[in-house]
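Bumping with the actual sequence this time:
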Amino acid sequence: MSPPAFQRAVDMLRDLLAGPGVRPELDLEDMPAPQSLAPYAAALSGSVYRDDDTEVAMGRLIVLYDPDGRPGWANGFRVVAYIRADLEPDIAAEELIGSVAWDWLLEALEPAGYANVSGTITRAVSESFGDKAGEPSTTELELRASWSPTGDDLAGHVAAWCEVMCTTAGLPPSGVAALPDRPGGTAR
C-alpha cells in the first residue's frame, strides 16, 4: 500500500496519461521507474515529434518519494528529469544555450513551486567517420535536473517538464502558433 501523498501523485500521472494529451506533438507513456533510488517511484517517458513523425526530443521524468525525506530534499518528494533534443548547429554553437535552457526550466517550474534544484546541460556534436562518413553531423542538447516540489501536487511539475521538452525541440509555447516562413526562408 502506497502512502497517500505518493498515491495521489501516481493517480495524477495516470489521469494525465488517460487524458486528452498535453500537446499534439507530445507523446507520453508510462515507463518502469528505478526502484533503488527511493522507497516509492513512478516514471513517464515522452517524445516530441515534427509533422513528418520525426522524433526531435525525448525525455524521462521520475517521481521519487521517501516518507522519511532525504538530505537535500525539501520534503518527501524529489523529481528527476532528463531531456534530449536535436539542435540546429548554429544554436548548438551559441555559447549561452546552456544558460538559456536552464532558465527555461526554472521559468517553467516557477508557478509549481520548487526548491533545491540542481542539474547539468550538455551540448553534443556527433560526427560520422569511416563507412558512415557521408552522414551529416548532428547536434543535441541534454538537460539533467532534479528538484523538490514545495507541495504534494505534482501536476505543475509534469507540465513544466513537458513544456521544456517542447521548447528545447523548437516548438512555440503552448497556445502560441508558429509564424509561417516567408519566401527566402526567414520567419516573420
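The C-alpha cells above came from a reply further down the thread. Residues 182-188 have pLDDT under 50 and may be disordered.
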